[in-house]
Amino acid sequence: MRSHEIDYEIFGDDMQVIEVELDPGETVIAEAGVMNWMENGIEFEAKMGDGSDTNEGFMGKLLNAGKRVLTGESLFLTHFTNHGSGKKRVAFAAPYPGKIIPIDLTKFGGRLLCQKDSFLCAAKGTKTGIAFTQRFGAGLFGGEGFILQKLEGDGMAFIHAGGTIVKKELVNDVLRIDTGCIVAFTDGLDYDIERAGGLKSMFFGGEGLFLATIRGTGTIYLQSLPFARLADRILAQAPMAGGARKDEGSILGGLGRMIDGR
């Protein structure tokens, strides 16, 4: 089905909120728990599915919901529909500091691959699914695991990421990136991982053991502050009982940060 045509406005700088304007009968789908406010006349319902296929049966919805669980998202999506008269607005915000990125899927061939927790909301008709990384090494050490989110459609979708967002256009080029800094990229780009350098650089350079490598022609969005890096810094300074930090005495904790560059 063709996506609903929605208007929107983004407010704020580092703690952004997006307000979506719906005509009567229009719907926006969103992750559970991201709604901030909505005007009278808008009603919401948690559904097992994105509503992109009106003929999809219960088993199809259950399968797609199961795919969402694999990416760490909620089993349900919330559908917000304007059942009133006249235009109505509903607002959503990301769960941590950063930016909201508006994506017109028609400008990206109708398909975009994203990190597994980046989807915020989209016009009804947008299909949310999963994509698997093609290489074992990229899935094991690439920071996002084997599974990426996949957005398909011909309408507006909105993703969020931490810190400052940088959009880069690659033309038959190669970009080496910290594994946690990739937000989204267009279909057709080749995603892989490589060693961060020699043994000394890998273990003591502070950039982790591996870097992500993007090759080809297309668009990629990068974030300056992955949430995992922010959370790790907070946890590292959080005192536990007896005044000891959480990771003190933990070999695995230090090894994990060494692998992903935190």
Distance between termini?
Answer: 43 Å
How confident is the prediction overall: mean pLDDT?
A: 79
Helix proportion range: 10-25%
CATH superfamily of the largest domain: Mitochondrial biogenesis AIM24
Tell me which oligomeric state these chains represent. Answer: single chain
**Briefly, what CATH class of the largest domain?**
Alpha Beta
CATH architecture of the largest domain: 4-Layer Sandwich
The count of DSSP E runs of length 2 or more, i.e. the number of strands, is 17
Question: Shape from CA axes?
Answer: globular
**Broad structural category:** alpha+beta
Topology:
Blueprint: E1 7-11, E2 17-22, E3 27-31, E4 35-38, E5 42-47, H1 58-70, E6 77-82, E7 88-93, E8 99-104, E9 111-114, E10 119-123, E11 127-132, H2 136-141, E12 147-152, E13 156-161, E14 165-178, E15 182-186, E16 190-195, H3 199-204, E17 210-223, H4 227-237, H5 251-260
Antiparallel strand pairs: 1-2, 2-7, 3-6, 3-10, 4-7, 5-6, 8-13, 9-12, 9-15, 10-13, 11-12, 14-17, 15-17, 16-17
